[in-house]
Amino acid sequence: MDLYLHDGMFTVFYRRSPALRWRRYLMQLFLQFGYGMMGHSRDLIERWNGGTVILSPRDLSPEQMTRLGGQVRSLPNARVLIDPQLYMPHSDHARLRSHSYWPQEYDTATFWSGPPLQAMLAALFDANDQVGTERVILPSVFAARIDDDWFAVQEAIIEESQATHADRPRMITLALSGGALADAAQIGNLIERAEQWPIRSFYVVCEHPNGDYLVQDPNWLANVLDLIAGLKLQRSFVLLGYCTHQQLAAAAAGVDAIASGTWMNVRSFPPEKFNTAYEDEIRQRATWFYSPAALCEFKLPFLDIAQRLGVLPLLHAPADLDWEFGDPIFSGAQPSVVGFTEQAAFRHYLCCLHGQCAAADQSAFDAAADSHDQVLNAAENLLGRLAGAGVRGQQRDFGSIVDVNRAALSVLRATRGPMLRRHWNDIVGL
Helix, strand, or coil here: 31? Predict the structure, then answer.
């Protein structure tokens, strides 16, 4: 059965299986565009009968961005956004600098007022018009620290866009360092300051501390959830970018959408990739298989072990999540030789995450938090059984992350729970 909902900003679609009960609200998955994702974007949006792609100027020339934007928008229920990626204005990245809005000369002291800022925003809005976005993501510099200097830049961008493009729907970017996200006081200041801003739509991108793929610091995740909850309680739309499956926890904070992609650097936010040529997606090729039940990814040789010890069927995703991309793994042949390709691995991961977002219960705050707790408990039990058979996810193992997410949920319940319970129906599904 197909279900369409409208959240006031985006049309939400998911394919509903008999096992998936009706949800009043749905957390959406947007595609975070990265290296080599043109075909993935078109194919997945078509398969899902709708969705949103966040285009990346770092990975697309202006001509490619316009062309791909048109191709995506030609699909049913499909939309595009542009992440301006002005996180490092001094960047020497050639493709970023090829876009018309990118400042060719940047002086911190003079850029954020007057003609330079006006010209940059005018060019950015024009690029959005050419691509056909319905909402403009305003640029932001990377916040190593959330302080008065950073607020001054944020508010200059907001005020100038309000003066010149008030009729255009906009989102505010919050690009935050791992250090800023480790400091609850800085996050509290940001939530308080954001309440004064005239735009109630946010694109939040968070640097993972220590370059982690799955973040080991529960304080970091607790502060991410607190930021989302604080913005939601201000009646805001919140999109959390550059996510892994660990950020499924954000459903309990009321997030409207998370975004993810193929390579590690679109499932996390390494700011350095916007500064110079950064080709980790080429150097670090490996094929990983994602098990949504275990919240864990495995290299193919460990799937061979799982097959030999009779536990491989435990990793099979439900049909409504997998869309058949993972079927070769369970064909009966040795998983590492069945031709499970990098392309299939990426699409399997994103289809599973898409389904997990739709299945996250956001009917009430306690339902959302309990739902994620249940997912964590099931994953922990399965990972224990797999570990007993020697099947582990190595650097992507979720075993140590279960308690990180539990701790962050506990903080959310204690600090924001009463207000979220009271206002949930007013803030989720904006």
Answer: strand
In single-letter form, the type of residue at position 233 comes to L
Contact of 156 with 116, CB cutoff 8 Å: no
Q: Which residues pair with residue 15 across a beta bridge?
A: 2
Q: Please compute, for residue 78, the number of CA atoms within 13 A of its CA located in the half-sphere on the CB side.
A: 24
pLDDT category of residue 65 using cuts at 50, 70 and 90: very high
Lowest model confidence (mean pLDDT) among 117-126, 160-169, 268-277: 268-277
Residues sharing a CB contact under 8 Å with residue 325, sequence separation 6 or more, in sequence order:
344, 345, 347, 348, 351
Helix/strand number for the chain, H first, E second: 16, 12
The separation between CA 283 and the C-alpha centre of its own chain, rounded to angstroms, equals: 23
Q: What's the pLDDT band for 275 if we cut at 50, 70, 90?
A: confident
Half-sphere exposure of 374 (CA within 13 A, CB side): 10
Find the helix or strand (DSSP H, E) in which 355 lies: helix 342-359
φ/ψ of residue 154, rounded to 5: -55, -50
Predicted confidence (pLDDT) per residue in 328-363, tens digit: 999 999 999 999 999 999 999 999 999 999 999 889
Q: What are phi and psi of 17, to 5 degrees?
A: -90, 165
Query: In Å, how far from its chain's centre is CA 428?
Result: 17
